[in-house]
Amino acid sequence: MASPVHNLLVLLLFFLSVPCSNSKLSVDYYSKTCPQFASIMAQIVSDKQIASPTTAAGVLRLFFHDCMVEGCDGSLLITSTSFNRAERDAEIDQSIPGDAFDLVTRAKTALELQCPGVVSCSDILATAARNLVTMVGGPYYHVRLGRKDGLVSNASLVQGNIAQPTMAMSDIISLFDSKGFSVQEMVALVGAHTIGFSHCKEFSHRLFNFSKTSKTDPAYYPKYAEGLMKLCANYTKDPTMSAYNDVMTPGKFDNMYYKNLQRGLGLLATDQALSVDRRTKPFVDLFAANETAFFEAFAHAMEKVSIYKIKKGKMGEVRRRCDQFNAAKND
Q1: CA distance 212 to 293
Q2: Rounded to whole angstroms, how far apart are CA atoms 207 and 224?
Q3: Which among 67, 62, 107 is positioned nearest to 88, based on CA atoms?
Q4: Are 210 and 272 in contact (CB under 8 A)?
């Protein structure tokens, strides 16, 4: 009669022999199942960015907001139903441009034609974000693949997981720390504001009736504040009014964002706070002086973000459509 120890060893050897490729991420995850993955993504991303130059910033924001809420699982791509208010309808996500979602849809459609049911929407989003950063001048970094798409998307989960433009720096640092990111990594990730824009309502409190002693935030460079006041004069009537996050090189991924902060050209209150807070200022100064240091820190932080709380195996699925769960088609 076999001993309990022998039985345990046999069981252990059985489990070790079971393939676990589904649970491992790798840069060549689709090399056999969808060898055209990289070339299809490169073509779709390039075409979309050329047609709509603001796509890069939109996709980067979409990717980051998706990852910060329950991990990088494509939950922000889901559309709401009469039974569920999805993440993308949370207030902070409603301003993510449609071009970002459109790119994911286009890529998914093309990939489904070549490799049906193989490539996850979360892998598409992570790869698109990296490709676009590189395309507009930023650093290349490796994206490991094999994520599964999440099974939950709820607007109520967003609050408290994404930094708001009016948050205190201590709260932002605590938020990133709770997700395993250092102050240096946080400052590097915020450098994504080197591209893209923000709506006037997100910084209007710095322009109109800021305090009893100053109409505008004195941290603004005066001429910059003057220009923003003219730009946003009618923002309450037209909520789509916006300004570039980086007024100097808005379409180029570079370290100008940090140089702007040193000159009083930080658009959001949280941007400007980075340049004066003793915990963040040293990294702002470093990245302003050394673009290579910024690129290296950003690439490292983005690799880390891209695997945050990913779903593997039965914890997720490969959606047939990125904007709805597979189960929805069976209802």
Answers
A1: 41
A2: 10
A3: 62
A4: no
Asked if residue 131 has pLDDT above 70, the reply is yes
Specify binding-site residues for heme b: 193
Token pair of 54, please? 């603001």
d(CA 224, CA 272): 13
In this structure, the number of other CB atoms found within 10 A of the CB of residue 89 comes to 16
Annotated binding site for Ca(2+): 66, 69, 71, 73, 75, 87, 194, 246, 249, 254
SS3 letters across 10-35: HHHHHHHHCCCHHHCCECCCCCCCCC
Residue keyed to tokens 């997720």: 316
Q: Where are the beta strands (DSSP E) in the chain?
A: 197-199, 242-244
In 166-268, where does DSSP find H-type helix?
A: 169-178, 183-190, 222-231, 256-262
Mean pLDDT of the chain: 92
Angle at which helix 55-68 crosses helix 291-306, to 10 degrees, equals: 50
Which residue, 159, 240, 196, 187, is CA-closest to 61?
196
**Cα–Cα distance between 61 and 43 in angstroms, integer?**
21
Which residues are catalytically annotated?
65
In 58-151, beta strands by DSSP E: none
Whether pTM > 0.85 for this model: the answer is yes
149-183 burial: b if 16+ Cβ within 10 Å, else e: bbbbbbbeebeebebbbebebeebbebbeebebeb
pLDDT in tens, 190-213: 999 999 999 999 999 999 989 989
pLDDT attached to residue 6? 52
Query: Burial code of 104-131, b = ≥16 C-beta within 10 A, e = fewer?
Result: bbbbbebbeeebeeebbbbbbbbbbbbb
